[in-house]
Design a protein that fits this description.
This protein is α/β, with parallel strands linked by helices. It is 37% helix and 18% strand.
Length: 401
Amino acid sequence: MAQGDRLYDCYNPPAQEFVRGEGVYLYTENDDKYLDFIAGIAVSSLGHNHPALVETVRIQADKLWHLSNMFRIQSQYELAEKYCDCLLWAGKVFFTNSGAEAIECAIKTARRYHHDNGDPGKYEIITFTGAFHGRTFATINAGGNPKYLKGFGPVIPGFTHLEFGDHDALQETISDKTAAVLVEPVQGEGGLRPIPEVCLKGLRKLCDRHGALLIYDEVQCGAGRTGKFFAHQWADRDAEPDIMAAAKGIGGGFPLGACIAREEIAKVMVAGTHGSTYGGNPLATAVGCTIFDIISQPEFLDSVTKTSNFLKQQFEGLKDQFPDVIAEIRGKGLLIGMKLKKPAVDVRALALEKRLVAGSAGDNVLRMAPPLIIDETHVREAVGILTECFESAQEMEDFSL
């Protein structure tokens, strides 16, 4: 039996096998060097083999790996304090292993909050087309993508899916049964679509008017990716959520997620309402503390903003150069890409041949989510490879939608 045949066929990886990483580069067994501009889908926020993270894991691995949440874990307390000091609205944190688990916790917290406040009929969650909230049974129902729901039986009631950006539909749909509105400040899988700051403020007001909670999914757009520690911080305090899910970059490659909530909301989640065996283990939260201390520094976030502005400028130049290939530049910060007129998955494959690791997303978008430590030299290198890819795409008649 061929290598990999014992695995579920849920993925179709390319032939390249990476055996090590260094900074923003990945290396194969033959020492072929690839520029990593997807970072494990916005996960490896500090790149590969970062010395501070390696040292943190080494020190903690010599002490204690696992306890379960039956016992106190000091680094959990430390990391929760860091988040709540950074997010002035936040009061309590539940640590998970993944973004999907953080969303599950957020949904449960919202529904339990209304139940315990005498309104058990207030359980519906409003979400939007193009959303991606995870691959668990509840989160695929929250996302509502028919492709992800197909073949898994009846849909779970209690989720209402509205067209992204349809303000009238939202006004008409939100009701006294609405427990929460769940939204990504910047959609990732849905095609790198940011929600304007004025709309985030409008969502906050609308939820307040109807007694609904506002939940942000910052699993992909958080952890410094847009130039703020969390993307919603680009808006003022009028856009703050009640609950937020975070993951991916907050662990820098180590599995770590968090559900963060206002104290008065989180207090309904008492002993027995939720749990996790591995969530917030000593290794994960030790790494999380190191990641936080690095990424939360103003000079680090300023560097992300500066580099992302340069990257966007360069991408706009590519759009002008290849109008038959690029339709639009999408995204925010270092969660950026291009809506293409040629198949994005084919362009992604072409880029990999030329040793640039990129991704793709919905709406035929070529997605970039590089490590936050890239600089202008890396941007120029990526743009040079993309130029070659677009020249090839432009010349191929059958390479079109």
